[in-house]
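stage 2 :: seqdesign
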């Protein structure tokens, strides 16, 4: 009974921490593309510019209490703000569930936070900011010294293979179609994923991301009347695929190999 209570405390604490981090991630998503400081000035209403008080900035709860409106001008506030806070909290809980109270949990909390910011910036602006991906490559490599199942050599090879795979795909695509189909940001992102997850994760990540991208992209092309030049950011698919690999990668590989055997 005590152990069950401890689980509730730990997971509840992880969700609250993740929600608070998610509030900060909202700031990063909004300000990084505009090259603004993520520290100053404090958060303010997007409509009236009024500084938000601390009690109006409690993750998720303040949005519900204020009924999704600014406490000053009463203009609607996007549902995406609490959604990102909820997503971040859920990812923190999931990370703690799989990796328990180990250094890996701290590493992957940082990792999933970066993926959330990258995904939404790419969705909004079709860019993956170097200010996240490039330091992320270095941080991922350093963190490999604290993750027993990802050695520094695995991380280093992941960086090289991650950057090399997408660079090769981008070069072949441009060679065949005479137009650019993948930005440099995706290449740097995959190198960052390789730094955190190791070289063995690269090909599964690319495969799953391509599969998800096809399942999403083809219907969108049909809606757009077959527009093959429709710009669909690939970063969110890579990020989602990386999360799938992080939490369920070994299980999926064993399942797939089992299908091959039978």
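stage 2 :: out
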């Amino acid at each position: 009974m005590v152990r069950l209570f401890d689980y509730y405390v730990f997971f509840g604490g992880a969700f609250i921490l993740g929600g608070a981090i998610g509030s900060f991630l909202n700031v990063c998503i909004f300000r990084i593309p505009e090259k603004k400081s993520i520290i100053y000035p404090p958060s303010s209403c997007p409509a009236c510019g009024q500084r938000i008080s601390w009690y109006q900035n409690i993750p998720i709860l303040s949005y519900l209490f204020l009924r999704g409106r600014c406490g000053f001008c009463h203009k609607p506030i996007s549902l995406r703000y609490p959604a990102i806070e909820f997503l971040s909290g859920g990812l923190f809980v999931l990370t703690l569930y799989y990796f328990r109270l180990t250094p890996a949990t701290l590493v992957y909390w940082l990792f999933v936070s970066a993926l959330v910011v990258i995904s939404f910036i790419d969705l909004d602006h079709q860019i993956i900011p170097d200010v996240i991906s490039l330091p992320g490559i270095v941080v991922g490599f350093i963190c490999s010294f604290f993750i027993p199942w990802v050695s520094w050599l695995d991380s280093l090879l992941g960086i090289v293979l991650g950057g090399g795979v997408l660079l090769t795909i981008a070069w072949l695509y441009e060679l065949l179609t005479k137009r650019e189909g993948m930005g440099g940001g995706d290449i740097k992102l995959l190198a960052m994923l390789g730094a955190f997850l190791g070289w063995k994760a690269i090909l599964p990540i690319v495969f799953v991301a391509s599969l998800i991208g096809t399942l999403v992209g083809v219907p969108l092309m049909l809606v757009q009347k077959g527009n093959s030049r429709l710009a669909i950011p690939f970063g969110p698919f890579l990020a989602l695929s990386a999360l799938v690999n992080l939490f369920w990668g070994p299980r999926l590989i064993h399942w797939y190999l089992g299908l091959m055997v039978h």
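stage 3 :: structure notes
- The chain has two domains: 1-101, 127-262.
- The two ends are 42 Å apart (CA to CA).
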